[in-house]
Amino acid sequence: MHEVSVMSDIINAVLDQLGHYEIEKVEEIVLVVGELTFLGEEQLRFAFEILSKGTILEGAELIIETEKAILRCPACGFEGPPEHIGNGNFHFSIPILSCPKCGNRADIIKGKCCGVTSAKVVEK
Ligand SMILES: [Zn+2]
Q1: CATH of segment(s) 2-123
Q2: Which of 16, 18, 57, 104 has the most neighbouring CB atoms within 10 Å?
Q3: C-alpha angle 42/35/101, rounded to 5°?
Q4: Is the dihedral of CA 24, 13, 39, 3 positive or negative?
Q5: What separation in Å is there between the alpha carbon of 114 and the centre of ligand 1?
Q6: CA 103 to ligand 1 center in whole angstroms
Q7: Which residue stretches of the chain have pLDDT < 70?
Q8: Could you tell me the residue ranges of all domains in the chain?
């Protein structure tokens, strides 16, 4: 499960960062997940629950925000969200990574990263 290794890296990074402070516990952390990472929210929550055990992150509320993909086309200058394959009957749809205007291969400028943007902590 890809989510476990991603979450493991995230938790290590957060613990590393929070290690500089005197912290009693973490109340919540906000995780931004890019649409193009294809990470499952349920799997991330599950991985968080397991991996945070015994750390100051145990019991923290995990808030997951999705970052929508944004493409930029080097050919025509288009900048915006990709078109998707799929329909409303599915819980997911697949973004097409070519320019919706001219069909050229577009660069991904948003939606590929995954990381913690903020944390609410209780200091000692
Ligand atoms: Zn284009």
Answers
A1: 3.30.2320.80
A2: 57
A3: 155
A4: negative
A5: 26
A6: 6
A7: 1, 87-92
A8: 2-123
